[in-house]
Design goal:
293 residues, alpha/beta, Rossmann fold, N-(1-d-carboxylethyl)-l-norvaline Dehydrogenase, domain 2, 2 domains, six-stranded parallel β-sheet, 11 helices, 14% strand
Length: 293
């Protein structure tokens, strides 16, 4: 069918693998690559073709989707893919890469004749697996019909932020949204740590705020991961959250504002990673309150 595409997915970690599966379930041909092939191989059971190299993965693709660790990783992988890049191919760049890196990636796209879409997503493992992500997207209006089937396969909602992917307007919105998510995550950890230190049963706190404006589902969801020892497999890993927190602080500094909460949150997440919790859910920032843990 005309709306069925060949999509190259570069990066099959927590998010990329889920997105690749949903693309395959939607009937698209998926060509997947990951630096550690063992993370990509299970996708073969979902009908994906596993490539040995980025260049092999993008060969003949209608759309390239990158979901890697950071901007530097995307640059490196796309350089490796360059010999097989075809002018006119749409590039959906979903890695949270930061403002400057997004502009650099857009320049790379221009150099190779690619149609660039700045398209980070909101959501973690569970909504990714369910195809319920929110896609934040910026890019040329005239080519949106090409990428819409991809966004529909991986997300429940697409929010368009502009027509120039190089402006990083979608990434800017993603950083704002993540600043709230990470602040809330770190606050959950500190509430639980203080409860532990003071001998307060966390349920007592939950009961006090129940049903009021201070109550929130996110508090209960992240608290449960800590209290029930369900931090693995991660919904969103500590190391990735720490990277995003650093990007938020950097963006604030570049635009003349101090983000003290974000800076402290980045430090907490980095400390939790150094304590051995890097691959656990970002709620494991809880352990940063206990220096000896």
């Amino acid at each position: 069918m005309a709306d069925k595409l060949t999509v190259s997915v570069l990066g099959t970690g927590i998010m990329g693998a889920a997105m690749a599966r949903n693309l395959a379930r939607a009937g698209h041909t998926v060509r997947a690559w990951n630096r550690t092939r063992a993370k990509a191989d299970p996708l073969a059971a979902d009908g994906a073709h596993i490539a040995d190299t980025p260049a092999q993965a993008v060969q003949g693709a209608d759309i390239i989707l990158t979901m890697l660790y950071d901007g530097d990783a995307v640059q490196e992988v796309m350089r490796d893919a360059a010999p097989s890049l075809r002018p006119g191919t749409a590039w959906v760049q979903s890695t949270t890469a930061g403002i400057d890196a997004t502009a650099e990636l857009a320049s790379f796209a221009d150099e190779h004749g690619l149609v660039f879409y700045d398209a980070p997503v909101l959501g973690t493992r569970q909504p990714a697996e369910a195809g319920q992500l929110t896609v934040l997207a910026a890019g040329p209006a005239e080519n949106r019909d090409t990428v819409t089937p991809v966004f529909d396969a991986v997300g429940a909602r697409t929010v368009w932020t502009g027509e120039a992917g190089a402006s990083a307007s979608a990434t800017r919105l993603k950083l704002v949204a993540n600043s709230w998510v990470l602040a809330a995550t770190n606050a959950v950890g500190e509430v639980l740590a203080l409860s532990h230190a003071l001998g307060v049963e966390p349920r007592s706190f939950f009961d006090v705020i129940a049903g009021g404006p201070l109550d929130m589902g996110y508090l209960h969801a992240k608290s449960a991961l800590v209290l029930e020892d369900k931090l693995s497999p991660a919904q969103f890993a500590v190391t990735t959250a720490a990277k995003d927190a650093r990007l938020i602080v950097e963006a604030g500094n570049q635009h003349g504002i101090l983000l003290d909460v974000a800076a402290a949150g980045a430090e907490r997440l980095s400390r939790a990673a150094a304590q051995g919790h890097g691959d656990e859910d970002m709620a494991a920032a809880y352990y940063a309150s206990f220096p000896a843990s």
